[in-house]
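Moderator note: this is an archived Q&A kept for reference. The question asked for a predicted structure of one protein chain; the sequence and the answer are reproduced below.
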Amino acid sequence: MNETARKILAPIVFIVGILALWEFAVWYNQLPDFRMASPSDLFPHYAEFADLFIVKSWETLWRTVVGLALAVVVGTLIGMLMGFSRFARDGLYPILVGFNAIPKATVVPIVALMFVGQHDFNTILIAFMISFFPIAVSVSIGLSTLEPEYRDILRSLGASNTTIFWKIALPKTLPEFFGALKVAVTLAFIGTNLMEIVSPHGRGLGDLFDSARISSDYPLMFAVLFAMAALGIVLFYIVVFLERIFAGWAERAPN
């Protein structure tokens, strides 16, 4: 089996296996759907609410992507500042750690009250706030650990700081950056769905989940959770694809 086939087949095998075990566990223990819905309980809801799932999934996805894109831009800029300046790193690190330690579930209602009725802005803001930290830290570490010999050699050859950044610093940071971006993808979805559930003006899959909770439609709640997971997986593999394009050399580098 070649490498490409293995990477495609392995997730499918494990997902199917987990779903089969889940179905068997619910059947064997005779659990009612208000305690644990089985995978077979979810498909009728996908068929019945197909149009609604498409609309809600798109609403969640685009807000998550925008928030993640902002996290990439701001996180990269902060990481570059900390990576090139020890003074900035010593000053900003405690602030970032303290901010990241605050449970974002407690921030969501505050943001919703501060910007009443601005659901799109609020959702994007929470997705950004919860996902930029790992990007900033990874870029900072990648740049701050750059070997000084590289800088000295290039400077002796007349290279500017801009050239050093583009030729050495940026390529070296890309593996750490994409590793952090994979984590940030899942965090951004958490932020988006938190706001969609809590906000009275919520839209997207989080709002659909809350509606199912209010109506005690437990299989629909599980169906929404699976839809959220599917979106996260899709976005994750988009990041993996981009990583192979821009940082594939790191995987091919000899150990």
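Archived answer notes: Residues 1-30 form one domain.
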